[in-house]
Design goal:
Helicase, Ruva Protein, domain 3, five-stranded parallel beta sheet, 16 strands, Rossmann fold
């Protein structure tokens, strides 16, 4: 079967090049256009399986491209790219018929997931959507460990997998919460059933309900056909609600009802629809504290906290670091290269001593960078480019008595941002919060000036 052909439209050469490079690396055939007019001319001449276009472009906007492209090639799905500050554009695009959207900035993983989802989901064919929504979960995506605490968690996860009990997976960013979720799905006897994920942190509040529960034809302007939500796509399978702490409060109330009644209401629907979907939720923050702060519903917390599993950070399971490093290097060495890479003892010692604020994900990325930038087969300490200040656990500074928790939190956030030179993604990872939470807190501080 030939690879799908994708047309990328963006007026920024750097962004266009990065998108094309990432998609070609996944085996897709990719062509690009620097303007809406050029893209429409290409669509008129050739057949594409997917169109990805930026929203804000000079001359012809992404929304205009979308409307014209749907006339020229109505069968071709369209993904719209837009910035976080203009989520209303995403709402407008979805109502105009976009298959999905990407909120900038986004990672290559999010790009790949969105493209795969759109290419395997045909909204006009419900049966096809349900069949194609099944995602293969490779046995390679296992949690690699020799740590007894993690092994005990895997044993418990395997025991509860065949049940329909809701599971709550807690842990810092990068510890492997999604891997544990897929482990539970595979060992639940339903590995051939749908496994659907939804990133609650990346979903605009205006689109959250329709994404989760779907909508009927004519539910709003632009709803030209019925669209199934994540719950229905995961029927008789598993729905992973990633970073559930970021779900808007109004949607939390509706989710609670779904979990209790085992039925959903599509937007614009006239009757409830029974569902049999197993829910797994993840969070990188203390949900009990979020309840105390009024950011998470207490009743929903108790409803999803049926089987709680907490993955320890990598700095608490250092015996796994050599095992993981060897595994990641073996994967990297599968790609034909001039050298087979290996760690010298000094490098391995440094890896074990480092505290890995980004956990397993940071370790994997660090080794990949070392291989890409290394000149020979031996990986030396200087090839790792580790941020030693960010990766060393330090004794906390003395806390002055009488200062409020909010004041201390503000100081910690601002100091962290200063340390990482304003990199919000890095700061959020170090603080153990989502980028959205960090952004909201910074907006609050700005308004208080």
């Amino acid at each position: 079967m030939s690879s799908p052909s994708i047309l990328v439209v963006d007026d920024e050469p750097t962004m266009r090049l990065a998108l094309c490079h990432s998609l070609r690396g996944k085996g897709y055939k990719v062509e690009d256009a620097s303007s809406g007019a050029e893209a429409l001319a290409m669509i008129d001449r050739a057949a594409y399986q997917l169109l990805i276009t930026d929203m804000k472009m000079p001359g012809m906007s992404g929304l205009q491209v979308l409307k014209r492209a749907r006339t020229l090639a109505p069968q071709v799905p369209i993904i719209i790219m837009t910035a976080f500050g203009t989520v209303n554009n995403a709402v407008t695009a979805m109502q105009a018929g976009a298959a999905d959207y990407l909120l900038k900035p986004f990672s290559s993983e999010v790009l790949e997931e969105t493209v795969n989802r759109v290419l395997t989901d045909t909204p006009s064919n419900e049966q096809g959507s349900q069949t194609k929504a099944r995602r293969s979960l490779s046995a390679q995506n296992e949690l690699i460990t020799q740590d007894q605490q993690v092994l005990d968690i895997l044993t418990l996860a395997k025991n509860v997998a065949p049940t329909d009990a809701t599971v709550l997976i807690l842990g810092e960013s990068g510890t492997g919460k999604e891997l544990l979720a897929s482990f539970i799905h595979r060992h639940g006897g339903v590995s051939d059933r749908p496994y659907i994920t939804m990133n609650c942190a990346a979903l605009p509040e205006q689109l959250a309900e329709s994404e989760l529960f779907g909508f009927e034809k004519g539910a709003f302007t632009g709803a030209a056909c019925r669209r199934l939500g994540k719950f229905e796509l995961a029927h008789h399978g598993t729905l992973l609600l990633d970073e559930i702490s970021e779900m808007p409060l109004p949607l939390q109330a509706k989710l609670l009802r779904v979990l209790q009644e085992k039925e959903i209401d599509r937007v614009g629907g006239v009757r409830p629809i029974p569902i049999a979907t197993r829910v797994i939720a993840t969070s990188n923050i203390d949900l009990r504290e979020a309840v105390n702060q009024g950011r998470f519903r207490e009743d929903l917390y108790y409803r999803i906290n049926v089987i709680p599993l907490t993955l320890p950070p990598l700095r608490r399971r250092r015996e796994d670091i050599p095992l993981l490093a060897e595994h990641f290097l073996d994967e990297l060495n599968q790609t034909p290269r001039p050298h087979t890479f290996r760690l010298i003892p000094e490098t391995l010692d440094l890896l074990v001593q480092y505290d890995w604020p980004g956990n397993v994900r940071e370790l994997k990325n660090t080794l990949e960078r070392a291989v890409l930038m290394g000149g020979g087969g031996l990986i030396r300490p200087q090839d790792l480019f580790l941020d030693k200040d960010a990766g060393c656990e330090k004794k906390p500074d003395s806390v002055p008595v009488g200062r409020s928790v909010k004041a201390m939190e503000r100081e910690l956030i601002l100091k962290t941002l200063e340390q990482v030179k304003g990199n919000r993604t890095r700061a959020a990872a170090l603080l153990g919060i989502s980028i959205r939470t960090l952004r909201n807190k910074l907006n609050t501080y700005a308004k208080a000036r």
